Amino acid sequence: MIVKKLVYAYMITLLLMVSVSAPMIEAAGYTVEAKPVDPALLASLRQGGYILFVRHGEATTGQDQPNLDLRDCTTQRNLSNEARRQAVLLGKAIRRLHIPVQTPIVASPFCRTRETAALAFGADNVQTDPFWVNIYNLSGNVTSDEQESTLTALRSVLEKTPAEGTNQVIIAHSFPRGLGLGEIPYLGTVVLKPKGEGHGYDIVSRISLSEWLSTQ
After folding, report:
1. For 109-163, how does the pLDDT look when each residue is reduced to its tens digit (9 = 90+)?
2. pLDDT at residue number 34
3. How distant is the alpha carbon of residue 173 from its chain centre?
4. What pLDDT is attached to residue 10?
5. Which residues in 134-156 are b (16+ Cβ under 10 Å) and which e?
6. What gap in Å lies between CA 177 and CA 184, rounded to an integer?
7. Residue 161: what are its φ and ψ, rounded to 5°?
8. What is the rounded CA–CA span in Å between residue 172 and residue 132?
9. InterPro entries of this UniProt entry (predicted)?
10. Phi/psi at 123 (nearest 5 deg)?
11. Strands (DSSP E) along 100-179, which ranges?
């Protein structure tokens, strides 16, 4: 009995040590261990020249209806209250880290993407682009020709370099697994390095919301 108590006490001590040593971020109702953004990447982002492709926040309110109207949010999935709070935190983190962003911020015309962009960067700094609806459609029923056309156009968009000394931010949608930029978690960021028109782009890193928030 004494041995069991000693083992139990030892396990509790280890758990407490882990919880103290590792920074934790609470997001979307659960707690995850966070690691900071790589310092070298952070330094590069401060110099500009990248695209930050961000998926919109958690959208669990409502459903995308068959008669979906981009002008009518009641026909779409919309941000949860937690997602709204997190979008504000994302924008604050990017500003706090002194990462320069080009304006306007580009957003897909869905309500959840526009709202994410507005909460993070200010409504006056957001411009919608209907092209990103094509990325949303990739998760639906599209032909192989339509898929290929969308991905070719995507390459043309993402290979263009932003204004000198800034980074372009795009708030849009996740991709199906194995296509384009792949699956992206809510408010996850894919960091891209455009190589100029006709030369494509590189995927440099993927940054979760918790990693943004834990970086000092």
Report:
1. 999 999 999 999 999 999 999 999 999 999 999 999 999 999 999 999 999 999 9
2. 73
3. 9
4. 43
5. bbbebeeeeeeeebeebeeebee
6. 9
7. -80, 145
8. 6
9. His_Pase_superF_clade-1, His_PPase_superfam
10. -60, -35
11. 105-107, 126-128, 168-172
Q: Tell me if 206 sits within 8 A of 38, measured CB to CB.
A: no
What are the C-alpha distances in Å from 156 to residues 71, 108, 153, 201, 209?
Answer: 27, 17, 5, 9, 27
| Sign, Cα dihedral of 139, 148, 129, 162 | positive
pLDDT score, position 124: 98
pLDDT of res. 181: 98
Burial of 17 (0-12, 13-18, 19+ CB in 10 A): exposed
Architecture in CATH of 37-214: 3-Layer(aba) Sandwich (3.40)
Scanning the structure block, which residue is given the tokens 């590792």? 22
181 vs 179: CA distance, rounded Å = 6
pTM comes to 0.85
Helix, strand counts (H, E) of the chain: 7, 8
Q: Which two tokens stand for residue 204?
A: 């440099």
The pair of structure tokens assigned to 101 is 């962003």
User: With a cut of 50, which residues of the chain have pLDDT below it?
Assistant: 1-32
50, 86 Cβ separation under 8 angstroms: no
Q: Where are the domains of the chain?
A: 37-214
Question: Which run of H or E residues covers position 74?
Answer: none
HSE-CB of 125 using CA atoms within 13 angstroms: 16
